[in-house]
Amino acid sequence: MSIVIYHNPKCGTSRNTLAMIRQSGEEPEVVEYLKSPPSRERLAQLIRLMSIRPRDLLRRKGTPYEELGLDDPKLSDDQIIDFMIAHPILINRPIVVTSKGARLCRPSEAVLDILPNPNIGPFIKEDGEVIIDEKGIRRV
Fold first, then answer.
1. Containing domain of residue 25, as a range?
2. pLDDT value for 66
């Protein structure tokens, strides 16, 4: 199985996650989900694979979350998914799917838990945060 990342190139967390995947020796299928949103069925499948509720995948910052009243606890899971399909910016990212599972990679180093080869060597995030030091020690 190849690795798939649902990616937003404008997001630093997403860029860091993609860089870790590539540093592991894999070239993932990159889905820019704002340009090519997942189908309703695929989004529901991703949520099941991650063992989360749809509400756990909602992004609030920089989205119409508040205007749409998505903090209303009466909204059903199906309604939340419908909003994410209508407004893909509401889907939090990056989502990564590998043979070891699926995960919302926030923080980006969460991807290491599902990479087939998590021994990626030293890695420093764009903001300078050391994730894996020069001795191979994970700093999380």
1. 4-132
2. 96
Beta-bridged to residue 4, according to DSSP, are 29, 97
Q: Is residue 137 part of a domain?
A: no
Q: In the structure encoding, which two tokens stand for residue 96, read together?
A: 């990564």
The total of structural domains in the chain comes to: 1
> What is the CB neighbour count within 10 angstroms for residue 21?
28
Distances (CA, A) of 40 to 24, 48, 58, 62: 31, 12, 15, 22
Comparing 108 with 140, the larger pLDDT belongs to: 108
Give the chain's length.
Answer: 140
Is 11 one of the annotated active-site residues of the chain? yes
Hey, which residues does 112 pair with through a beta bridge? none
Q: Is residue 138 part of a domain?
A: no
Catalytic option among 3, 11, 43, 114 = 11
The domain spanning residue 8 has which CATH number? 3.40.30.10
Tell me, yes or no, if the pTM score tops 0.90.
yes
Q: What is the pLDDT of residues 50-105, one digit of tens each?
A: 999 999 999 999 999 999 999 999 999 999 999 999 999 999 999 999 999 999 99
Please report whether residue 139 resides in a domain: no
Residue 139's pLDDT band (boundaries 50, 70, 90)? Answer: confident
